[in-house]
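Standup notes
- HV: blocked on the assembly model, inputs below
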Amino acid sequence: MTKVTVRGQSRILRGNPFLTIGLLIIVAILIFAYLGPLFTDPERAEVGAFKPKQSPSREHLLGTDTQGRDVLAALTLATPQTLNIGLIAGAVGIGIGVVLGLLSGYLGGTVDTAIRVGTDVFITIPAIAILVVVATNVRTINVAIMALIIAMLAWRLPTRTIRAQTLSLRERAYIQVAKLNGVGDLELIAKEVMPNLFPYIAASFVATVSWAILATIGLEALGLGPQNEYTLGMMIYWARFYGAILRGFWWWWAPPIVVIVLIFVGLFFTSAGLDQLVNTRLRRVA
Amino acid sequence: MNSDILRVQDLRVYYDTPAGPVKAVDGVSFPLKQGGRLGLVGESGSGKSTTALAIMRLIKPPGRVEGGQILLGDQDLLKLSDEAMRKLRFDQISLIPQGAMNSLNPVMRIKQQIIDIVNSHDGDYSEAKLNESIGQLLLTVGLRPEVATMYPHELSGGMKQRVCIAMAITLRPKVIIADEPTSALDVVVQRQVMETLGKVQDDLGAAVILVGHDMGLMAQFVDYIGVMYAGKLVEIAPVEEIFREPQHPYTQLLISSIPSLESKRLFKGIPGVAPSLLNPPSGCSFHPRCPQVMGHCSSQVPNLKEINPGRWVSCHLHGV
Amino acid sequence: MSELLEARQITKVFDAGGGLFKRDQTVALDDFSMSIIADRPSITAIAGESGSGKTTLARLLLGIIQPTSGDILYQGKNLQQMSQEEWKVFRREVQAIFQDPFEVYNPFYKVDHVLTTPVAKFNLADSRADARELIENALRGVGLRPEETLGRYPHQLSGGQRQRVMIARALLLRPRIILADEPVSMVDASLRATILESLLKLNQELGISLVYITHDLTTAYQLCESIVILYQGCVAEVGDIELVIKNPQHPYTQLLVASIPLPNPEIRWEQGEQRQSKSETAPRGTQGGCKFADRCPHVMDICYDAPPPLFRLDEGRATACFLHKELPTVQATEVMDTLAQRAFRKAQAVPAV
């Protein structure tokens, strides 16, 4: 049976609208978030830079807020901060999750029980409760610390997902063959099990980053975010704090929300597209 | 051919792939007598399962029926509307697909699954009549009527397969196609299931097409065998003659590769590799592996020719 | 005769869970014993259907799982008490070939991976060049061409080729015993012969003992010298394969042999054969008595009292059936030893070809 090589990226994308749209949105956001600041003068986003409360005009495409900040500039600088928190927390979360999941799933026994019970306990406690408690007790919060606080809980679901997949992969015949070939446990996990987990790790990563961004925005909107650095969540917080909704300054509270929605729509489509890709691959190989 | 219930003529089924069409079935023709037993034999990739699915019009994209006729009585099944074909399935022809026993709905009782078949064919029976009929149906396949209230996981492999046979004959079809019905079963259960199939067939006066690769099973069950290779039929003959005097070189190699209890340590395989269906060999698809290959075999495609009444071969050795 | 690999009265019980209050237990193997001798390479078949315990036996003999009771010994040493060194030796000398030629490959790697790994792990070669040569020779030894096999992914090879690569893998380690668990059942008919032939070559040319685990009596007959028939974890019949298949004495063996679809349309399954199956849903053995009692056409009262021991039918044959209760009892290992001795003497008498 001939296998059709999936060399051409375009071939994957052509048959997969979810992935295409998702990636397009994500790429657009990334360009906005990481290239945008290069063309933005950070002084425009300082307090008191311009006359406050201006509605959108040619000079200020998204107007200014009550502190005199150009909203567009602020948005351009805030987006990468939010993304950074999400990515760092997501990466740390996945890193811990993969290690714990692999060990737990493969070794079984007491190790598995310990990790599993620990994870389940953390899953049952509402994240928001833990995060609020921690955030309120930390003296200064900046982007890095924010990321770490979120990472504290980001590993829970990846651990379970990876553990489940490992449990299933552990029983595969090729694992038996590897054992017969004299391969030891740790090497087995790293070389035989893990490579087959890549699709699941990728999908889990997208999900974890989504969760991390959501968690960070949630905390920030409550005011528990970095006080001196501007993120999307903080924008919403300040907007609310200064009554932008009541006073009709839609150009201040709407844009960050739009960006957040776009981020999630993009992540969702990418995730769905990846899922479809993994399944199609499996179907084709079989 | 007056008592043929089914006639397949020049059936072609292609699968569209980015690399081109894969000719899974490439010009297959055969008759099926009323009440007869035909075995379609071949290895993986020969096209036998695809033929079975094509007869039931169950080929899904990227596969498509490229051409041919499937005549059930006077009707060409390939020309029927989707709705007309749907009504025909289970009513006139049934299929017991490969791995059928694993496709039973795990959360429905057996009774319900049989009722589903009846209902989807405008069955309109009272509860009591249904129960009675189902009980009878299960007895026909050698199962206790209580099985109707069970779930699939409560049954053994052989029992599940017999449930599948029961489902296939619920509406008393004229043709039953069984695709590897016993491949996952133990040899003892296999015999039971095949004997059940035979008995059911006798009761209904139906014809059976048995698709598989186990020549031993074919020898025990069918009257006629059609040997498939690379999407084509290379030989059709009565079962005794195929075993006694196979005419096509592939059939000859196939027969001699069957292990038997008559002699020890006689291992004979078929040299070479199975052909690609994307780029089949030119001329006769078997020529790269044929021990009796001649000059023109690589350029001319042989046709299926009736060398004796009831005996067809597709081979240049028989001057086609 | 010294035992190379021995299973001594092993019982393996699986807990199927069932919750706190009801423990579903499956007895996969019940007081089972067998041995492979060291002095002469043998080919033994272990035949049985699903639920017979043959796969469990394979995993026990390979050391993948542990018995609930009883011992598995290699060269006299219990597997569970081996040192690291001894285990490494065992691992190298007892190898396996599995049923599914696709599942045994890690889809992430090319097929080379499964050959280069043991070379590295067991230090079979000093240099990359040596390793390469070793692997290529092994592939040629099973009738494959290295150019056409190496560098490919598993899905690019046929089932037969994949299975032969697996045999080459086992070959590399120069084991003393290879357990082949249904090596040809998932392979096309035309390729089976080649694979069986490779296995036979391993035995005849390299002196490797084979344990051929299967439900297909025909290929077992073709390949093996002796056979153990398993039914629900117990030995039903054991002996010279010629005798057991051609003249089965245990009712279960008789049933098995009668159910084989002979590739001869003139000899069809006899109609109306005695195949009473009183309880359909394959019960897990009648408690306390012969496990086949429920399905046996010759069942007697005594069959429900206690499991039958093996009765010696003749020098190289025994069956666990009360129909032969007046004969002396014997252990499975004794029968296999006898067969091995006979074969040994025969081999000694005939000058090497």
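- HV (later): unblocked. Chain A has a mean pLDDT of 84. Chain A touches chain B through four residues (CB under 8 Å).
- Next: hand off to the docking folks.
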